[in-house]
Amino acid sequence: MQIHKTPDHCFENLEGYPFTPNFVEVDDLDGGRLNIHYVDEGPKDGQPVVMIHGNPTWSFMWRKIIPILAAAGYRAIAIDLVGMGRSDKPTQMQDYSVARHVQWVTEAVFAKLAVTNAHFVLHDWGGIIGLRAIADHQDQVASITFSNTGFPTLDPNTKITKMARPGAGMLRAFQLYVRFNRGWKHWKMLAQLLKKKPSPGVIEGYHAPYPEKKYLTGNRQFTQLLPTRNDNPQLHDNWYALEKLKSFKKPFLCLFSDKDQIAPNGHRSVRDFIIGAKQREPVIIKGGSHFLLEDVPEEYGQELLKFLNSQR
User: Which one from 40, 260, 267, 295 is the annotated catalytic residue?
Assistant: First the structure.
């Protein structure tokens, strides 16, 4: 597997992101090794809070939450998924799959960082990848916060009579657009989706890991992995993971925003099934888009800290 590494200078002087880089090495699942970047702030003996982003974000998205958690005595860990942020970037679309992302996150977080009694905060694709990783490591998890994401499944015993997933037309068109647009400027799309106009520095923060289009492969492939068809392999894998998670009784908070354009009702995919999620009403923050960490970071931080502190 060939990889690209974004030059270090691309990450200098980013707005609100002064954190020291850390790296953990994992199996690239193709005979080599990959480096996953993560932020690690706060007391090292503090209870871990592991944040997992989605697409097209990276650990930069958590920059306002990390100091809040660290000041409250938590060990704030925010990883960059492979192909994104400061992590290594395999060069071929076929290098990436949901299953591979799950394996990379599992090795990095549960094996190499070896977190225990950890809170997990999941957004967008981080919800699917995070829940899949957690399903086999529930004993190392203290709680889950599930934000603006969903967990699509399909029972393997269900006969497929129609290939297109309900309501997938818009996402299918989006997939086709990105497939043939190698220079997809996703940081501009993100800015357009926000309810609060971002500063030039914030837009540059999302652009920084991708100074040339050759670094965009991981972001582009995430769009192709969207479950727009019923033969998408993640649907069965998610179903098996959900079967394991149904008995998860620990605290589970659905923390969403009311202006989410992507997964406004994603909490329904877990609250009807997972015991811990059933026991707590969703918290819906007003005024936030899908990328609520940019629109309502203060409100998000308050609700998250309230949830975490209630377990102390």
Answer: 260
Q: What is the pLDDT of residues 171-218, one digit of tens each?
A: 999 999 999 999 999 999 999 999 999 999 999 999 999 999 999 999
What does the angle CA 156 – CA 160 – CA 161 come to, to the nearest 5 degrees?
160
Q: Which of 168, 171, 146, 156 is closest to 248 using CA atoms?
A: 146
Reply yes or no on whether 139 is catalytic: no
Residue spans per domain, the chain: 3-309
Which listed residue (80, 88, 95, 124) is catalytic?
124
Is the pLDDT at 166 greater than 90? The verdict is no
For the beta carbon of residue 264, count every other beta carbon within 10 angstroms.
Answer: 16
37 belongs to the catalytic site: no
Fold of 3-309: Rossmann fold (3.40.50)
Catalytic option among 40, 237, 290, 295: 290
Peptide bond into 56 cis (omega under 30): yes
Extract the tokens encoding 273.
């099934």
Q: Does the active-site annotation cover 80?
A: no
